[in-house]
Each structure stands twice: as structure tokens, then as C-alpha cells.
Amino acid sequence: MPPAGELQHSPGKQSPNTQPSEAEAAAAILAAAADAEAAGLWTQIKAEARHDAEEEPALASYLYSTILSHSSLERSISFHLGNKLCSSTLLSTLLYDLFLNTFTSDPSLRNATVADLRAARVRDPACISFSQCLLNYKGFLAIQAHRVSHKLWTQSRKPLALALHSRVSDVFAVDIHPAARIGKGILLDHATGVVIGETAVIGNNVSILHHVTLGGTGKACGDRHPKIGDGCLIGAGATILGNVKIGAGAKVGAGSVVLIDIPPRATAVGNPARLVGGKEKPTIHDEECPGESMDHTSFISEWSDYII
């Protein structure tokens, strides 16, 4: 006999709520795959750090404290960002706890970090390893810090989000408002001088080079910043102003000034920017994701007869 008060089920019968739904099962599979990917990447990062420590003993202590002594990618990044962004009033231990609690409470942030690491390693030929990206690429570090400040912003912890935003701007020369929404697989190449405004939205697998501004116009409040579609490539020094839409897979040439929408997979160049192929029938390139290919010049023969 079962103890008093204990429910007894007939063999072969199950509670209707014990079996996960198809959606829950699919989500569990995706979560397990993401966990495995993150674990595999972390193993590779530690192997790279061990190799670098053997090759360059002067860095052994630094590599141990930032990577090799930690049990996970989240702990390593939290420790590294805490030391990078600390000040006399924002202590590294406080920042470490803040970053770690945020990263571990939301698995989507860890997944975005993994995608950002892969983006830098694959798209930037100057990136020699995942560990070097994690340690030294300020565009990558600025994006990870922004993910935390954005989480704080959505939790109505706006003073702390703004304090963190200010430190990122001071240390990395990257100014991203905490309210800006940014996807995953993002590359801020070189990153110096990047400015992203409060109501800006950036999709997945986007590459943005240095001195790019996603800004507003005038002093009106409300939705006033650009919306960048998935897979876009924004060249160095480009300025995109106002609540304009840059279609998925579009390219914006270096130094361009964009004030109106750009169709998907079109290319805009110049100041003021104009569409390659013309406004009425713009040339639509074959690439779905120039943000991954990093091709800045394939359009030049259609746009200009400039010859050196």
C-alpha cells in the first residue's frame, strides 16, 4: 500500500501533462544543441589559450586569469569585462557579478555571444583565433557589454544600464544606447567611433565597420533611428539618419550618407547616397548575406567610371 496521501497510478497510464509538446521537445533539442556548441567553442578557446601561454610565457598569467582559470565562457567574459570596465566607483567584483548573473539567467545572451565570436573569426581575416577575439577585439566586447546593459534597460534598471553604457563608451570608444535592439552574429570591425541610437534595431548577421553612425534627426522623441535588416553590410564612415529601413542583405558603401529607405539586397553609395542601378530600377545583387561575405567593391564597375 502506498503511504497515506500518496497518489497511486495504474500501470501504463500517464498524467496528460507528463509528455512534452512537440514545441517543447523541439525547444529542448535546440537548447541542447546550443549548449553543445558553446561547450565545444569554450574547449577550443581554452586550448588556444594554453598554446599561447606556452608560446609566450609573458602572457601566461594573464591567460590563466582571464581564460584558463574559468569553468565556462560566461565566467571568462564576465571576469574580463569586469576588469576592462571597472573604475574607482564601479568595482570589478560588482561588474563581474552583474555580468555573470545576467549571462547565466538568459541563455539567449550566451547563444548570441557564441554567434558573435564565430562572426569575428570567420569574417575578419585579421582574427587569428577565438581566444584573441574574446580578449582583444573591442567591438566584440562592446557588443557583449551592450547585451547586458540592454537587459538591465528592459528590467527598468535604467540608471545602472546608462552607467554601464557610459563606461563602454569611455573604454571602447563605442556608443550604443542601452535601449537599442541588436541581433546575433554581429561584427563591429575595428569598432572605433560606432554610434547607435536609442530606437535603432539591428538584425542578425550584420557587419558594421568603424565610424558608422545610426542616428536620429532633429530633437523629436519617439521612433527616430534606423532599422538594419538581417545580413547587411555597413561600410566604414557611413552615416544613416532617421527612422529609415535598410532592407535585408543591403550594402551601404563607405562614407555614404543615407536618409531614405534602401531596398533589400540593393547597394547605396555616395553623399547623399544613391542606389546602384538607379532609383527606379536598382541593381539587386545575388548575395543574401553580404554581412558575411564582407564584399565592399563588387558593385564599383556599375556605379563609377573612376580609373586610377
Helix content: 40-55%
The SS-based structural class is: alpha/beta
The count of strands amounts to 15
CATH class of the largest domain: Mainly Alpha
Q: Beta-strand percentage?
A: 5-15%
Average pLDDT rating: 91
Oligomeric state of this protein? single chain
Shape: globular
Number of domains: 2
Number of helices: 10
The H-level CATH homologous superfamily of the largest domain, spelled out, is serine acetyltransferase, domain 1
Low-confidence stretches: 1-15
CATH architecture of the largest domain: Orthogonal Bundle
Radius of gyration: 23 Å
The biggest sheet, with number of strands, parallel, antiparallel or mixed sense and barrel status, is: 6 strands, mixed
Per the CATH scheme, the topology name of the largest domain is serine acetyltransferase, domain 1
Series of H and E elements? HHHHHHHHEEEEEEEEEEEEEEEHH
Distance between the termini: 93 Å
Strand order of the largest sheet: 3-6-9-12-14-15
List the helices and strands and how they pair.
Layout: H1 22-55, H2 60-68, H3 73-85, H4 92-105, H5 107-123, H6 130-136, H7 138-154, H8 158-172, E1 175-176, E2 181-182, E3 187-189, E4 195-196, E5 201-202, E6 207-209, E7 213-215, E8 227-228, E9 233-234, E10 239-241, E11 245-246, E12 251-252, E13 257-258, E14 267-269, E15 274-275, H9 290-293, H10 300-303
Parallel strand pairs: 1-4, 2-5, 3-6, 4-7, 5-8, 6-9, 7-10, 8-11, 9-12, 10-13, 12-14
Antiparallel strand pairs: 14-15
Helix pairs in contact: 1-2, 3-4, 4-5, 5-7, 7-8
